[in-house]
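User: Structure with iron/sulfur cluster, tokens only please.
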Amino acid sequence: MLASQHNSTETVVRHDWTRAEVEALYAMPFNDLLFKAQVVHRQHFDPNQVQVSTLLSIKTGACPEDCKYCPQSARYDTGLEKERLLEIEKVIERAKEAKQTGSTRFCMGAAWRNPKERDMPYLTQMVAEVKAMGLETCMTLGMLTRDQAVALKQAGLDYYNHNLDTSPEFYGDIITTRTYQDRLDTLQNVRDAGMNVCSGGIVGMGETLADRASLLIQLANLPEQPQSVPINMLVKVDGTPLDKLDDMEPFDFIRTIAVARIMMPKSHVRLSAGREQMNEQMQALCFMAGANSIFYGCKLLTTSNPDTHEDVVLFKKLGINSERTREYSDEAHQLALEEAIEQQNPPRSELFYDATEKGQTESA
Ligand code: SF4
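Assistant:
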């Protein structure tokens, strides 16, 4: 039973956070901050439940964008093996495995600036088929137009991930090929289409504390707070421009989780990339600070993640259960599937192409 069911002083969701307030949260003594975050967390969530997602890269590498942290950018020599758009049967196979290991949400990511129109029928079919398995669906495909967001929503996409990455002030140091406003526009298109928004950022990229506060203010002060907020710790990949940065102070990372929890009390705060660099105790402190979502599986899009078995062992040690997905009716799944097949799908043979050869790497 949630603490909120007993507590009349439930926090309200605010969209007017100021820099001074957020910096004051960061400046609190660590134990006080964690206690405050835990109180907020218990008002809205079962503190011993963590939502588990699995992430699959459906198109890897050769991305035209220049995000300085990313091994998938075509601009950096990271030795990453490029992969063309995955065949739908392979995606379904991986979704089945994810479901068997306890994931409730299946996230599919493509290293694109944005999806091309010719990709849309394939993507909508993929969404419908994964959803028909009883999994929540999530995609991350780059920038989306309003029409693309509507098409994905109609196919059954529950969540769309598009991170703000960092503060507007620091953004230009990290990415130059799309603007902050482009990102905000995509989030608006996703919201307007009625999908849940998954949006967060990366810390440890050389930003200041003021930048971290500014990123969280951007997220919390959106017209609707993102339902899912991934907080990533930079994974330094050889060959990317950020590969020589100093490690960030782990307590600063935990503080960022706690401040995000306080500012976005009803959002799932996702402990995302960088978990492999954290020991069990640090992950436990992140859960204490209000993180309540993780990715299962040994690989994120391209960087490694703790083995699923290690996560199961950690959950057992901490008495954490994975959150159950909401129920869908079989009829709803069947309908979504049939509609997708009927309306949107050219023969599959037309859909599988080498993304690199067909110009998928070009900027739109
Ligand atoms: S757009 Fe995505 S895949 Fe492309 S370089 Fe940036 S983070 Fe990497």
